[in-house]
Amino acid sequence: MNAPFNARAAALRDPFCAFVCDDATAEILRPIAVEHGWAPEKVNKGGLRNAVQTLSVSTSPAILFVDLSESGDPLNDINALAEVCEPGTVVIAAGQVNDVRLYRDLIASGLQDYLLKPFTADQLRDSFVHAQLTISGPRQNEANNDKPHVVAAVLGVRGGVGASTIASSLAWLLGDKAGRSTGLLDLDVHFGTGALSLDLEPGRGLTDAIENPSRIDGLFIERAMVRATEKLAVLSAEAPISQPFLNDGSAFYQLQEELRNAFESTVLDLPRHMLVQHPHLVHDVHVAVVVVEFTLAATRDAIRILSWLKANAPQARVIVVANKIGSGVHEITRKDFESSIERKVDLVVPLDVKAAAQAAKLGQPLAKAASAARLSQPLAQLAQMTTAAVAAEGEADDEEADSSVSLMAKLNLKTLLAKGPRLTKAKA
Ligand SMILES: Nc1ncnc2c1ncn2[C@@H]1O[C@H](COP(=O)(O)OP(=O)(O)OP(=O)(O)O)[C@@H](O)[C@H]1O
Ligand SMILES: [Mg+2]
Fold first, then answer.
1. Are 171 and 260 in the same domain?
2. What is the pLDDT of residues 234-265, one digit of tens each?
3. 107, 123, 142 — which closes off a domain?
4. Domain span including residue 47
5. Same domain, 122 and 152
6. What are 90-146's pLDDT values in tens digits?
7. How far is ligand 2, taken at its centre, from the CA of residue 237, in Å?
8. Number of domains the chain is built from
9. Which residue's CA lies nearest to atom 12 of ligand 1?
10. Measuring from each residue's beta carbon to the nearest atom of ligand 1, which residues come in under 6 Å?
11. Alpha-carbon distances of 411 from 139, 303, 341, 415, 417, rounded to whole Å
12. Which atom of ligand 1 lies nearest, measured to the CA of 193?
């Protein structure tokens, strides 16, 4: 309604269409369709097979009801439906198979709901209410412009430094604690942990988007995002390792655009190799969270990435977060690290193996699972700094005070390399 994108996409679609296998199901559906203001003639006979045939030559409706009763292999057939059904359609299925594994698989492949036949009129009404909420939810957020949209990209300077942990925690804090509807976009398409760490199935949304960027619109986002909490939804994938994605990055850019329309905050989990291929991904971010550790390699790459950000995301407020910092000895001291990168570390998140294990076990973001203030406090501060960055746009300019990371930093790194037996060994 308030969203130009959604309104445009929705205007092209019928609000509702159904394909059922028997008269009894049709008779339950028709009066409820009328209650919603939908044409009862949209309840067709023919079940899933007819749905696939019809939708392969016509625009998909906003809400689609399909009867799987005549389907020999419901999961396979639903995937066939997904091939012809445009993203953004909310699909409700009904069938006679009472198997929780099938139910889970169907939901994971993108179904909104599965009703076991025979179902009651009230069950059907409930299902339609949820479908409509799915469609209208993000649009309500768009109407709320009290909170200017904030986009934060989280990148680790080395593998395994905890960038995804920080990203999911930041997204959860922005959502559940700051009360902003938040989308977490995990761009580690093959090995992402965005869904896994929140105990969710990633679904096919992200891979579908990459394969067919032209399908991405507001309705697509509504359907593809997997909801973690009332305020937090995730788009993540576990694409097969054998499946390379050769794309120009337009899908990622478009997803970013649509998330901006649909949510009040976006958190991008941005693997560093993506920076090489798709530098445009940071062109519009408000905040770049650079996750580091105190090692020689991380020092070198922090220097390089901070310098790259200055050139490619000069508008972004850069927040350097040192993660997994224990009380013991680190390869490099904080002081040496800071003098090498020629700026302060903004936040230090301590190493807390117990809390990380607990978070993994519970399928919760670290910020939620951690009870100790020493862990939750820096993460909460990160969320606060992130929202503050849009409240006072232009603060990123303060970073100007940090002289450019360049020759001097490299010289400092060289000094470090010359220090101490371990570092000297590393150099050799
Ligand atoms: N502060 C912390 N204390 C203890 N363990 C942590 C902390 N932060 C992250 N971890 C753990 O470190 C591991 C790697 O974290 P994560 O997957 O977030 O890293 P990453 O930088 O995203 O890795 P990748 O390079 O694979 O994307 C996880 O097992 C996570 O639980
Ligand atoms: Mg990661």
1. yes
2. 999 999 999 888 777 888 988 999 999 999 99
3. 142
4. 4-142
5. no
6. 899 999 988 888 888 888 778 888 999 999 998 898 888 778 777 765 544 444 456
7. 12
8. 2
9. 162
10. 156, 159-165, 188, 193, 271, 323-324, 349, 351-353, 356, 360
11. 52, 11, 10, 6, 10
12. 17
* CA 366 – CA 180 distance, rounded (Å): 19
Give the distance (Å) from ligand 1 centre to CA of residue 353.
10
Task: In whole angstroms, give the CA distance from residue 66 to residue 83.
Answer: 15
The pLDDT of residue 314 is above 50: yes
Looking at the structure, tell me whether residues 127 and 153 fall in a common domain: no
This prediction's pTM: 0.66
Residues 35 and 74 in one domain: yes
Ligand of minimum distance to the alpha carbon of 290: 1
Confidence of residue 348 (pLDDT cuts 50, 70, 90): very high
Atom index in ligand 1 nearest the CA of residue 323 equals 1
- Domain contains 427: no
